[in-house]
Amino acid sequence: MLIAPVLILFGIAVVYPLIETIRLSFFDIKGLGKPKYTEFGNYIRLFSDPGFRSTLTTTLIFTVGTAAISVTLGWILAMLCAFAPRETLPFRVMIFVTFGISEAVSGYIWINILRPDSAGLLNSVIGIFSPGFTHPWLGDANTALASLIFVVAWSGVGLPLMLCFAAVQSIPKSVLEAAYMDGAKPLSIMRHIMVPLSLPGVRVAIFINLLGALRAFDIIYVLTGGGPVRATETVGFFMYRESMTQFKLGYGAAATVVLLVAVLIVSTPAIMQRTAGAK
Question: Which of 43, 118, 199, 248 lies 20 to 30 Å from 88, alpha-carbon distance?
Fold first, then answer.
């Protein structure tokens, strides 16, 4: 009885839209026209579409790239901060604050940094060493995806830093003291004690950052709009473009289901591990 209101709201806000999206993916719906049942026609079109296959590749590069950079940097910083937890508190807070900034706000911040003219912060800094240097970081298909990955990774470092730092702080002090008494150097302690014992935090950070990268939309919409020439278009943005701008609701719903399957593939191992640990 107590959880019934939550279950009802969850059903209305999550379960019903999910079932309806899966149902729509089997229909050809264009604008306000009458839906036409196509069985798996939308999925066949989807995977035979060169644009969607390119989008899958972009999504894979974007997801793995952002997760790898943010988790690696957060993990390294956590190891370093663990040697001086009190002194590095302001530093950790400053980095973690970036995780709390919304994707849209973060995007507008980086628009000014990555401006294509000399007024852009990045171009102006490089211009100190190379006068007159300008580059359209988000307008060049060769650098747009890399720039986007860097921006998203920047905002994602805070969570791995805190998770890995918490994992290191949970290491019994007696273990570290014994290592110091045996003459172990800081690098040896980091390599043989702190790194292995912080792996649970790293696994959680990888899981959360992968999911965050898969569902990224706001920052892509603000920074590049999927361009130039669809160089930064992920599955989430492809779904939006096909459904909301091209009015192909069934086709967009099929892309949504593909994204849902990708999220399930990423999240299932983590859920199984947590469930096994609880048992």
Answer: 199
